[in-house]
Amino acid sequence: MESKKEDFTPVTTLQRRILVFILNHIYEHKHFSPLKVLCRHFGWNSKNTAHEHLKRLRDKGLLAYAKTNKRSHRWSLVPFEQWDSTIKDCFKEL
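Below the sequence we write its predicted structure tokens.
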């Protein structure tokens, strides 16, 4: 796993929408949504944009990132139990 930088800023509305989309995609398809699917859903033109948003969620402790080899990687959700309590509060009404 790649090391993460702790980011204690609040979760933004867009970050919350991205995470909800990812959670729904995992529930429906049983795997993490590909960057291409995120780009299509949010109207982004570049996979790099999706990657940057995912890195911000990783820095908040919500996603994990592992390089599987030189050119590929694997994103995954951090278990809900490990989320910071302030972030859990942002998702209570869902």
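The beta strands are 63-67, 73-77.
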